[in-house]
Amino acid sequence: MKMNSILVVEDEDKIARLLELELEYEGYKVTKVMDGFEAFEAYKKGNWDLILLDVMLPGISGIELLRRIRLNDKHTPVLLLTAKSSVEDKVSGLDYGANDYITKPFQIEEVLARVRAALRMKTVEQANQNQSPEEDLIKFADLKVNPKTREVFRDEEAIDLTPREFDLLVYLITNKRQVLNRDQILEAVWGYDFFGDTNVVDVYIRYVRKKMELPNKPPLIHTVRGVGYVLKEAK
Ligand code: CA
């Protein structure tokens, strides 16, 4: 089996070495860089299965680096490392296209679990890419979703979603007309327990709704009070 290559971008030597040691022990091939510019060079030269990216870096910040990466590359999973811990901070980082967010100080087991989850998602995505274009399209009401290109259209109108928003929408469509509670959504879309923080589900539903609910279109995501959410045609 091919070893997954991970780019670790972290300027704190102690943390960088811990990550390198533990990830290598788990069987990953690790390259570590300690500054933003160097990281962008390493990113362009390498072929990475995953990037662990500290937000506070010398040179260019982790968020700016992420923005540059996402201009041309929507697929390489990026997990952000940061000292900030509020839900809003998590969401702002995720909004730039990070796949996940890890707050420092972290438990190494937590990092390893999230790395595994992100790589698992990537494998599912690659499996979907091997299907023909017609099989690829997921349709619901006037929504069309292409998992291969990660494009979403409502009628002919393109909807630009971040990776996590996209995963959330795909999960809702796959389980259309079923009422889903927040824990179910959290587990399916985030791939692990986000520390019981189901707020993040509400925040993301709000984001996806805002992008999807066009003024002349009926709503598709409905709140079921006291339970969760359901994707269904408006009545
Ligand atoms: Ca740092």
Largest sheet: 5 strands, parallel
What would you call the shape?
elongated
Structural class: alpha/beta
List segments where confidence is low: pLDDT < 50 over at least 5 consecutive residues. none
CATH evolutionary superfamily of the largest domain = Response regulator
Could you tell me the radius of gyration in angstroms?
Answer: 18 Å
CATH class category of the largest domain? Alpha Beta
| Strand residue percentage | 15-25%
By DSSP, the count of extended strands is: 12
* Helix amount: 40-55%
Verbal overview:
With 235 residues, the protein is α/β, with parallel strands linked by helices. It folds into 2 domains: 5-128, Response regulator (Rossmann fold, 3-Layer(aba) Sandwich), CATH 3.40.50.2300; 133-231, Orthogonal Bundle (Arc Repressor Mutant, subunit A). 44% of the residues lie in helices and 20% in strands. The chain has helices at 13-25, 36-45, 62-72, 87-95, 108-129, 133-136, 163-174, 182-190, 199-212; strands at residues 5-9, 29-33, 50-54, 78-82, 100-103, 138-140, 143-146, 151-154, 157-159, 180-181, 221-224, 228-231. Strands 2-1-3-4-5 form a 5-stranded parallel sheet, with helices on both faces. Strands 6-7-8-9 form a 4-stranded antiparallel sheet. It has a 3-stranded antiparallel sheet with strand order 10-12-11. The site of calcium ion (CA) has 5 residues, from loops.
